[in-house]
Every structure is written in structure tokens, then in C-alpha cells.
Specification:
CATH superfamily: PAS domain
Distance between the termini: 38 Å
Number of strands: 8
Structural class: alpha+beta
Number of domains: 1
Low-confidence stretches: none
Strand order of the largest sheet: 5-4-3-8-7-6
Helix content: 25-40%
Order of helices and strands: EEHEEHEHHEEEH
CATH class: Alpha Beta
Largest sheet: 6 strands, antiparallel
């Protein structure tokens, strides 16, 4: 890590990737106009989607557990009007395995850059099963 002239740390992409890998954080971005979703490698693995093809909102929706899909779709669409941080928990199907995922981001178009929203996915399966 490097430090700026004021003594504050400067986080570059490599340092951020080390931190997100350590925390098991999967990254996503969502173009709110085209519904195209970009996933990092961890997110592709979490969802069980190939990393060599673009992902749409419909592709992710097809992986959501049937009992959760309508609620998750409504919640994702509603995030644009949420003030501040949001968290949406739902189940996804990965082969024969069911996983709990928490999608987190900032609503009200905060952090929206050129009509693209950014957030993270966390695999919260262990915590859900423990509860």
C-alpha cells in the first residue's frame, strides 16, 4: 500500500481485490437501461454462470429459487428508489445446491455512474443455515 502526502492510505485496484477476496465479496454492476450485468470471477462462480458470456438480469433471475424470484425481482427494481444502503437476501439454485445470497448496494441512484449501479453479492448460506 502507498500513502498520499497527508499520510492517508491510497487504495489501488490490487489492494481492493486482496481485501474483497479475503472477505469473500463478489462484485457486480448493473446497467439500469439495458439490464446488462457485469460480474467478477467470484460472482460468476457463486451463481454458476459461465464467465465468457454477457449476463442479463433475466439470466440471474433464472438462477433464483422459484419461491424467491418474484420478490427478488421486485426488490431489485425498487432499489433505484431506496434512500441509502439496501440489502436483499434470497436463495439461488446452483446445480442441485441451494445457496443464500445477499445483494448489497446503494439505492436512489447513489453511486450511479453513466447509468450503471454497483454492488456486491455475499454468500450468506452458512449464516442462514446456522440461524
Amino acid at each position: 500500500m502507498s500513502w498520499d502526502g497527508s499520510g492517508a492510505p491510497v487504495w489501488d485496484a490490487e489492494h481492493l481485490r486482496i481485501a474483497t477476496d479475503a472477505a469473500g465479496v463478489a462484485l457486480w454492476s448493473w446497467n439500469v437501461d439495458t439490464d446488462e450485468i457485469a460480474l467478477d470471477e467470484r460472482a460468476h462462480g457463486l451463481w454458476g454462470l459461465p464467465s465468457d458470456a454477457p449476463v442479463s438480469f433475466d439470466d440471474l433471475s433464472a438462477c433464483i429459487h422459484p419461491a424467491d424470484v418474484d420478490g427478488a425481482r421486485i426488490a431489485f427494481k425498487a432499489t433505484r428508489a431506496v434512500l441509502g444502503a439496501y440489502e436483499i437476501d434470497f436463495r439461488i439454485l446452483h446445480g442441485k445446491e441451494t445457496r443464500w445470497v445477499s445483494a448489497r448496494g446503494q439505492g436512489d441512484d447513489a453511486g450511479n455512474v453513466a447509468r450503471v449501479m454497483f454492488g456486491v453479492f455475499l454468500d450468506v448460506s452458512k449464516a442462514r443455515l446456522a440461524a
